[in-house]
Here is the input.
Amino acid sequence: MTESRNITAMDRILIRIDEALRLSTGTTPAPARPNPATDLPDLELDSATREHVAGLMRVNHAGEICAQALYAGQAATARDERVREAMHQAAAEEIDHLAWCESRLEELDSRPSLLNPLWYAGSFAMGAVAGLAGDRWSLGFLRETEIQVEAHLQEHLERLPAEDARSQAILDQMKTDEAQHARMAEEAGAADLPLPIRSAMAFTAGIMKALAYRI
Ligand SMILES: [Fe+2]
Ligand SMILES: [Fe+2]
Here is the structure.
């Protein structure tokens, strides 16, 4: 009996490690929804502009790697089965974001962040800690993350060149989805996080963004 429980726990850990390695090294599952940029023109960008856009999209791709890891960490430690299910459902929608950012990076002849395994590991640990704090806090952490991501996406939309309709369409849809995830967390009973935690989250995200733009 003890042995089969151990095997089950070990299986779960191995599934998580396998998932982490696949996602953080660029093997993204197929998106469920069509890419919002599909019917838009891919205008030629000069090399400096292309590099700038690739930097922004690399940051967004790394952010989605973090989202996958946060959800996985939170789902691993969530107490309530419904909360765990909501985490898995939201993570499935974030896969679309990851896949869209990845294909835009390919179109721009660029690549995802080389530090993705690091972002994944750090975010998984943060998600697991949030989950251990209890479901209301974990949902509060999720809601705050989504609110910060939504604001960040708005900032990136303003920094994209006007002629890059393809990147804009992707970030627009992502922004709509993140707002929906924040509402989902709110309705599920998210607690309000104290200001120092919200500030620490923004600070940590700032470091990730600065590095992923380049590396
Ligand atoms: Fe997302
Ligand atoms: Fe989200």
Q: What stands out?
A: DSSP finds seven helices and no strands in the chain. Residues 64, 67, 94, 97, 174, 178 surround fe (ii) ion (ligand 1) (CB under 6 Å).
